[in-house]
Amino acid sequence: MLKEATDLFLPLIAQIKAEQQPKAITQYYGVFRNKNYARDNAIAEIENEYQQAINEIENQYNLDQLAAQQEYFSAKMSKAEYRLKSLAGAGGGILLTVLIAVVLVFFSIQRSVRKIEEKVSTNGETENRIV
User: CA nearest 23: which of 4, 31, 37, 36?
Assistant: First the structure.
């Protein structure tokens, strides 16, 4: 760092009187060092702010990603729920249709049995009359 400061100071030596050169170079080193420290501190602060901004963006991205995953799984669960409800509805409809069909078949069988009983009873009366 001092070599760099000295190299920058050499072009200015011609403008400074010989008796003031040692004092001038000491002051120049002090100013150079102070400005370098200030510059390094400013760079470090900028880097720190930059890292904080990147961390905030990454955290927000992660939060948004988690929210999107939660929304996706919620929608997926909702679809599964609707699927189960539709299957239950279809199963209930089939069961109701089968139940109605059984009742109708039962009534049909009962009507057929009555017709058969009527024929048997009319045939029995005819036979009783013949005898």
Answer: 31
Please compute the mean of the pLDDT values over residues 65-77 and round it to a whole number: 96
Residue 123, class by beta-carbon neighbours within 10 Å (0-12 exposed, 13-18 middle, 19+ buried)? exposed
Distance CA 20, CA 7 (A): 18
Q: pTM for this one? A: 0.52
By mean pLDDT, which of 12-21, 27-36, 56-65, 79-88 is the weakest? 12-21
Query: What's the sign of the alpha-carbon dihedral 17, 18, 19, 21?
Result: positive
Contact of 20 with 44, CB cutoff 8 Å: no
**Which residue from 60, 2, 67 is spatially nearest to 28, judged by alpha carbons?**
2
Residues 6 or more apart in contact with residue 25 via CB below 8 angstroms:
6, 9
